[in-house]
Design a protein that fits this description.
Elements lengths: L2 H21 L19 H8 L13 H11 L8 H14 L17 E8 L7 E9 L2 E14 L9 E10 L5 E10 L3 E10 L2 E8 L2 E8 L2 E6 L2 E6 L4 E4 L10
Antiparallel strand pairs: 1-2, 2-3, 3-4, 4-5, 5-6, 6-7, 7-8, 8-9, 9-10, 10-11
Length: about 250
Amino acid sequence: MSASDGHRALGGALAVAVAVAVASATLPGCARAPDVPDTPDVSRLLSAYTAPSGTVDSSQPASWVEEGATQVDLLGGGQAHLLLARIAANALKGVDEASLPDGRGEIVRTRVDGVATVVVACGKASNETADVSVEIVDGAVTPLMWGTSHACPLLQGASPRVSYDGRFTMYRYPGTDVLVRLEGTLSGVEADVAVDFRLSGGRLETRIATPTGDVIVRRDGASVVARAANGTFRCNPAQRECARDNEVAPPSLR
């Protein structure tokens, strides 16, 4: 199975799961509300990426700049070629296009809440699978998806091959942007990860906790660009220097 086949399989399987979940909705004479498990809370992450709380002092060395550069590099250098995020986009597209029951026959048109959960292939090998759940509220699929990855490929064309084992949470913004939280292990580089990132406009940005709060960083060539509460800054990871991005940077930051 190719990577694209895996993506289509994920989307198709989720679409079927959603249809089954809705088809088992309340029938005549049944009034008990469905048992909906707790879903991940991503409200803090959404706020952090929208309005980061940390500040940058361009007159002081920024000790977190190296950490930011390392974290972006761990996630593929800042390019939007993470397979987990593409899987999320394709899966949610498949769910969106699913044909849900419309009240015909014995199924009563009603409010449907629940969680559809499936096991899907995420790679070529038989052990490369993901347990994926999506939430349904008032009969509509929400932007939230979560689950567990078992040796799912993380990056396209990575050498050595990097795969991910562990939990993930994904949130789809309107359009194609997606927020991802990972808590697990990367094989191939043998690293434990507890990171989150957002793919926006074809670029990857990630969150760094600094002494003043969260700062959102991305790669731009050799520089790290940081979004903070007090503006946007361009930083040199080697020298830990930052300058406002709308100002002429010193030679070391160019």
